[in-house]
């Protein structure tokens, strides 16, 4: 289990540039939080890269992320990675018991939301996104309407972190890969 293997799986099953960029965004945030919490950055990054790798092929609630986790089980990926991936999908009702699982849940929707906020800024740069703008856009239900704000709030609560701190850390992590994201 290493990043190259995870990338191979991601690229094999995910063809869209936007979903690949989402995986890279979540990976950057997971690495950032793993470092912050003194956890295994590589393991957390792999969970991030693979959390949605099956989504293009199996977008329904009945299939995602279970089809992907079945593949990971067949490849003998660690159980904590598989449980974190299952835990990011509320509809599965898999308890998020590890810090990795809680973090993946907390940052998945938020990373995409922050990117959406950056894209409507005049500069279209993640460097120009303050926490206050993200929080303001969260109140606008018409903006990025498919992003579940309740999951973002619940995720911060599960991490026992203030929402502002979670947002700020995700922004910082995305700034580190701004070129990869085209932001």
Describe the structure.
It contains 10 helices and no strands. It is mainly alpha-helical. It has a single domain (3-181), classed as Hypothetical protein af1432 (Orthogonal Bundle). Helix 5 (79-87) packs across helix 6. The radius of gyration is 15 Å and the shape is globular. The mean pLDDT is 96.
Topology (SSEs and partners):
Layout: H1 3-13, H2 17-37, H3 41-50, H4 66-74, H5 79-87, H6 99-119, H7 131-139, H8 149-158, H9 163-175, H10 178-181
What's the short story on this structure?
This protein is 64% helix and 0% strand.
Features:
183 residues, mainly alpha, 64% helix, Hypothetical protein af1432
**End-to-end gap:** 30 Å
Order of helices and strands: HHHHHHHHHH
SSE class: mainly alpha
Mean pLDDT: 96
The low-pLDDT segments are none
The CATH topology annotation reads as Hypothetical protein af1432
């Amino acid at each position: 289990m290493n990043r190259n293997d995870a990338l191979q799986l991601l690229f094999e099953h995910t063809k869209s540039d936007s979903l690949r960029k989402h995986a890279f965004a979540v990976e950057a945030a997971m690495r950032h939080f793993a470092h912050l919490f003194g956890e295994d950055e590589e393991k957390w990054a792999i969970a991030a890269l693979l959390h949605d790798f099956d989504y293009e092929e199996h977008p329904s609630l009945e299939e995602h992320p279970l089809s992907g986790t079945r593949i990971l089980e067949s490849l003998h990926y660690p159980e904590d990675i598989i449980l974190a991936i299952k835990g990011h999908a509320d509809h599965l009702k898999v308890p998020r018991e590890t810090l990795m699982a809680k973090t993946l849940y907390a940052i998945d929707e938020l990373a995409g939301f922050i990117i959406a906020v950056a894209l409507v800024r005049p500069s279209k740069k993640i460097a120009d996104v303050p926490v206050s703008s993200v929080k303001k856009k969260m109140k606008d239900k018409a903006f990025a309407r498919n992003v579940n704000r309740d999951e973002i709030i619940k995720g911060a609560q599960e991490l026992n972190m203030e929402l502002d701190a979670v947002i700020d850390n995700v922004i910082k992590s995305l700034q580190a890969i701004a070129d990869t994201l085209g932001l």
